[in-house]
Amino acid sequence: MSLPAQLSEGLELLGLTLSPEIQARLLAFLALIQKWNQVHNLTSVRSPETMLVRHLLDSLAVLPYIGGPRIADVGSGAGLPGIPLALARPDWHVALIESNHKKAVFLEQARIELKLKNVEVVAERVESFHPKPEFDIVISRAFSDLVDFVRLAGHLGLQGSSGGMLVAMKGIYPHEELVQLPAQFTVEKILQVPVPGLEAQRHLVLIRRA
């Protein structure tokens, strides 16, 4: 199956409707990762077909469970999940937070080449970043365990009773990490998220301030 067909089928299975233009830009992003990966080792995944599943579809699978309009992608790496989310939801503002210089340079290049007017690249450590206004959703895909995530990035979310949500993308159900979560944060729900073509488990942990 061709990459465009694989992407189209995956989106259909996720229940997502994205225009042909957006789908083409998602594949252009994938090609950009492949190109840079030859020099900078952005990801250990080499096969385009596997990248499509483990990077694009895995990132887009969270869309039904989060809202905007201000999103922070903590430890963005190769722009995952932030760039696929920004492409799929051009009305959202997405901040890609990445302290690794080479990866931040890639993110800036991707922002320019893909003409992502709704993306901001923040090349600094997350604990040093103090934005105003804060974010509705603070999401991480492979940043750290839950304890470090809320400790380092908890301040990025909206404060108060109707405050923002921290969303951790996890593999297997994170039993041990949940036990260690600080008392000032509470788990709202944990969702098992199916990713088309991916045999491994995926869970979303939705966290708010207690």
TrEMBL record:
Domain of life according to the entry: Bacteria
Keyword S-adenosyl-L-methionine attached: yes
One Gene Ontology cellular component: cytosol
CDD domains given in the database record: AdoMet_MTases
Keyword Methyltransferase: yes
Primary location: cytoplasm
Recorded family membership: Belongs to the methyltransferase superfamily. RNA methyltransferase RsmG family.
PANTHER family xref list: S-ADENOSYL-L-METHIONINE-DEPENDENT METHYLTRANSFERASES SUPERFAMILY PROTEIN
Gene Ontology MF annotations: rRNA (guanine-N7-)-methyltransferase activity
Keywords assigned: Cytoplasm, Methyltransferase, rRNA processing, S-adenosyl-L-methionine, Transferase
InterPro entries associated with the record: rRNA_ssu_MeTfrase_G, SAM-dependent_MTases_sf
Organism: Nitrosospira briensis
HAMAP family assigned: 16SrRNA_methyltr_G
E.C. code: 2.1.1.170
Subcellular location: Cytoplasm
Task performed by this protein: Specifically methylates the N7 position of guanine in position 527 of 16S rRNA.
Protein known as: Ribosomal RNA small subunit methyltransferase G
Binding site for S-adenosyl-L-methionine: 75, 80, 126-127, 141
